[in-house]
């Protein structure tokens, strides 16, 4: 007998619940980020998972509604916003699209490779450069295209968590060094403090796993939002964004993501993971028309990726054959 849509969705949700319970204990293998003191206050045992289907359903399990800051996931939004308002060529004049295999805040390549162009927008040097390029003089003006892109997709204006922003701002010694280095080499399009404020504020934008699932659904569907029936981001920009997520999205674990998960994804040190499942032709597999995944698990590994979150993503990709290769 054919199963109804409701029954199918119910079985997906049950599966999500099973994963959250199965992988939650593994969060003990990681720790909440402490280099930004406000992030250390998260509950390391939290694990929330959402998957958005193009038919309008969002399936949810665990602590899917806990707000957390985007951190590095905001680099994806910053890149798409900058490409939309400044043009992709202008952005790529200042930042490359090459993976590094280095830590997200590494400075090494800025000096080792002349003329010091940041390797990609998913590492700190590249993201600070992208933030500097956004139009306007004041940090609030530059932040606007990022907030309004999120508002368009989510139907609500996200908040900047001032406590997390302050905590990051006061401890951003390494990011400040990166910004000075970029300024010296002519890649920063604004002052060091302005660029850094935009970057730190975008990292402090608050979302839930459900929000991430909705955003990644739009990225998966080449910028089209199936919920609202509208093109939100130019197609060409989302194609490059997905390639960057796949090759650079999980920092120095990006190669492993491509090899063993095969889904474009971006992580942040607050424990979020946003993964975009592009439409695939797979006989019998679910989510053939694509989907968006949002995960929150604040205990992270040494690289900066959520321990339990990554386990869920890996199992999910295997179980539902989400791998793009
Ligand atoms: O630049 C920083 O330190 C953070 N605000 C963002 C870093 C981040 O999320 C890297 N993640 N794995």
Walkthrough of the structure:
The chain has helices at residues 5-23, 74-86, 88-94, 108-112, 124-133, 139-154, 162-170, 173-184, 192-203, 209-220, 235-248, 254-260, 307-319, and strands at residues 48-52, 58-62, 68-69, 206-207, 224-225, 230-231, 265-267, 272-277, 291-296. It has 325 residues and is an alpha+beta fold. The protein folds into two domains: 5-66 and 208-319, Beta-lactamase, CATH 3.40.710; 71-203, DD-peptidase/beta-lactamase superfamily (Beta-lactamase). The longest helix has 19 residues, at 5-23. The chain is globular, with a radius of gyration of 18 Å. The chain starts with a helix and ends in a 6-residue tail after the last helix. The structure holds 6-diazenyl-5-OXO-L-norleucine. Residues 71-72, 104-105, 124, 168, 175, 203, 251, 267-269, 304 line the site of 6-diazenyl-5-OXO-L-norleucine. GO terms for molecular function: glutaminase activity. It is an enzyme of class 3 (hydrolase).
What would a concise description of this structure say?
This protein has helices spanning 5-23, 74-86, 88-94, 108-112, 124-133, 139-154, 162-170, 173-184, 192-203, 209-220, 235-248, 254-260, 307-319; strands spanning 48-52, 58-62, 68-69, 206-207, 224-225, 230-231, 265-267, 272-277, 291-296.
Distinctive features:
5-stranded antiparallel β-sheet; binds 6-diazenyl-5-OXO-L-norleucine; alpha+beta; Beta-lactamase
């Amino acid at each position: 007998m054919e199963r109804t849509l409701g029954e199918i969705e119910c079985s997906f949700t049950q599966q999500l619940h099973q994963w959250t319970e199965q992988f939650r204990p593994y969060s003990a293998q990681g720790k909440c980020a402490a280099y930004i003191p406000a992030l250390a206050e998260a509950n390391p045992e939290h694990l929330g998972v959402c998957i958005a289907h193009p038919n309008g359903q969002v399936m949810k399990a665990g602590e899917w509604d806990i707000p957390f800051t985007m951190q590095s996931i905001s680099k994806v939004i910053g890149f798409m916003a900058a490409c939309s308002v400044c043009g992709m060529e202008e952005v790529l004049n200042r930042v490359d699209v090459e993976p590094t295999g280095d830590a997200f805040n590494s400075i090494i390549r800025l000096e080792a490779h002349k003329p010091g162009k940041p390797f990609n927008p998913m590492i700190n040097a590249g993201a600070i450069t992208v933030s500097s390029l956004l139009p306007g003089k004041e940090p609030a003006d530059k932040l606007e295209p990022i907030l309004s892109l999120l508002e368009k997709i989510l139907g609500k204006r996200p908040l900047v968590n001032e406590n997390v922003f302050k905590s990051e701002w006061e401890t951003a010694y390494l990011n400040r060094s990166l910004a000075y280095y970029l300024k010296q080499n002519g890649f920063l399009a604004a002052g060091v403090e302005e660029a850094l404020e935009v970057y730190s504020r975008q990292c402090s934008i608050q979302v839930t796993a459900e929000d991430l699932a909705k955003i990644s659904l739009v990225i998966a569907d080449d910028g089209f939002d199936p919920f609202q029936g509208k093109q939100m981001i130019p197609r060409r920009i989302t194609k490059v964004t997905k390639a960057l997520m796949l090759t650079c999205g999980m920092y120095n674990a990006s190669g492993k993501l491509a090899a063993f998960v095969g889904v474009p994804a971006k992580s942040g040190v607050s424990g979020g993971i946003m993964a975009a499942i592009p439409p695939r032709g797979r006989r019998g597999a679910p989510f053939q028309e694509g989907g968006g995944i949002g995960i929150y698990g604040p205990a992270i590994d040494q690289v900066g990726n959520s321990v339990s979150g990554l386990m869920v993503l890996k199992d999910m990709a295997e179980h539902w054959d989400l791998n793009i290769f």
